[in-house]
Design brief:
This protein is α/β, with parallel strands linked by helices and 402 residues long. A hairpin with a 5-residue loop joins strand 8 and strand 9. The N terminus is likely disordered.
């Protein structure tokens, strides 16, 4: 993807958090967010996909839509190497959106070193990476992901990882309340209860392939917990899990044939974890594969002296309930049409196009282009979720068997 270097005008002034009034609504679709952000300036120079049929199908859809000019000259390559060999110098992108599955990135070994290939062949191109940053054996992937993060930082490459809930208006309102009142977080408690009967991907139910729901799914709430509480004392993490073969873990509407998955690889039904932050504050997380239908139950509560900040359903219909000193009742804040995905892409794009001089020229502060989830920070979330999974497996008393 390539965009022009003409900065767009934005209003100035922002605190260390992002002013929630600045986070803009946008349809729930990644490519539409890119199209909305850059409009007629967007030029998608290449699509790298090993499937020619899939690439042609998607490009054909775009070329028949109102955004056709952005995709009119988009080339398709099956590999990064092919793109390097065939792409002209003036086609080199300003930004690269990495949507490849985690098993192909986040590492230093061939076949898993996508970020390092891009750093080598497209120096200066900004990177947007989905979460989690890696997947695979714990010690190996954490060490390699840390090395990838170190090299990205060393290269000075603009990089944003897709923990989009940090950009939510509700989340930024919570940060603003804490900052305005000079509060220290005392505790965080998170719940992520998924509706499982429509999750018909066999690999989701196989923790050998997707590492289990804490690492693959609850990672967003582990990350939000860290966003408020700070770095976690990993040695303090304790967890227990309800396994598939324990009586309460027998689910009635599993949509795949779990018999095809080896017993030791089947995911837990519920996980409960507690920990201490390095600040001394405490945290907890409960994840469960429990609900039927389609709606999930997700909530994060942050406690500070005199304050309770309770965020409910940040994905679909975010509500923030605030209890303050002097009252036992809760204020209710609703955030209609919020799209943290777009705010995330918008900040990423603004940073690509901005320099210190261009910011000064149009009255935009450094905070207006702040990336809230760096690669190195996202690796900490990955390591944290592994610590929860490890602790839960250590506490298991019943063998994984039929």
């Amino acid at each position: 993807m390539s965009v022009s270097s003409q900065p767009t005008e934005r209003r100035s002034s922002r605190r260390a958090s992002i002013d929630p009034d600045r986070l803009l609504p946008m349809p729930w679709n990644h490519s539409q967010r890119l199209e909305r952000k850059w409009g007629t300036r967007l030029k998608v120079v290449a699509l790298v996909d090993p499937s020619t049929a899939r690439a042609n199908l998607e490009l054909d859809k775009k070329r028949k839509s109102f955004v056709a000019p952005a995709y009119q000259d988009t080339a398709h390559y099956k590999t990064i190497q092919e793109a390097v060999e065939r792409m002209d110098e003036d086609e080199k992108p300003h930004a690269i959106i990495i949507g490849a599955p985690a098993q192909f990135r986040g590492g230093t070994q061939p076949g898993r070193d996508l970020e390092l290939q891009l750093l080598e062949h497209f120096p200066g191109s900004a990177l947007f990476v989905e979460k989690p940053v890696a997947t695979g054996p714990k010690e190996e992937t954490i060490a390699e992901a840390k090395e990838v993060g170190r090299r990205i930082a060393q290269a000075g490459t603009i990089t944003s990882v897709g923990y989009m809930l940090r950009y939510s208006k509700a989340v930024q309102t919570m940060k603003r309340i804490l900052e305005d009142n000079e509060l220290e977080v005392m505790a965080t408690t998170a719940q992520y209860i998924c509706a499982y009967e429509k999750i018909a991907k066999e690999d989701w139910w196989d923790k050998a392939r997707t590492l289990g729901p804490i690492i693959e799914q609850a990672t967003h709430f582990a990350d939000l917990s860290r966003y408020f509480g700070g770095d976690v004392d990993l040695a303090s993490v304790q967890a227990s899990a309800l396994e598939w073969n324990e009586k309460p873990g027998k689910l009635r509407k599993v949509p795949i044939d779990e018999g095809k998955i080896p017993p030791e690889q089947r995911i837990p039904r519920a996980t409960s974890a507690t920990w201490k932050y390095e600040s001394g504050a405490v945290g907890s997380l409960t994840h469960a594969v429990a609900l039927q239908g389609t709606d999930y139950y997700t909530t994060l509560t942050v406690y500070a002296d005199g304050y309770q900040l309770r965020l409910v359903d940040p994905y679909n219909d975010p509500h923030l309930y605030v209890r303050r000193p002097g009252s036992d009742s809760e204020e209710i804040h609703r955030f209609h049409d919020d799209d943290p995905f777009f705010s995330e892409i918008s900040n990423f794009g603004d940073l690509i196009e901005s320099t210190a001089s261009s910011r000064d020229a149009i009255g935009v502060s450094e905070e207006d282009t702040k990336i809230l989830s760096s690669y190195e920070d996202a690796v900490k979330t990955y390591e944290f979720t592994w610590a929860i999974r490890d602790a839960s497996e250590r506490s298991r008393k019943k063998p994984a068997q039929e």
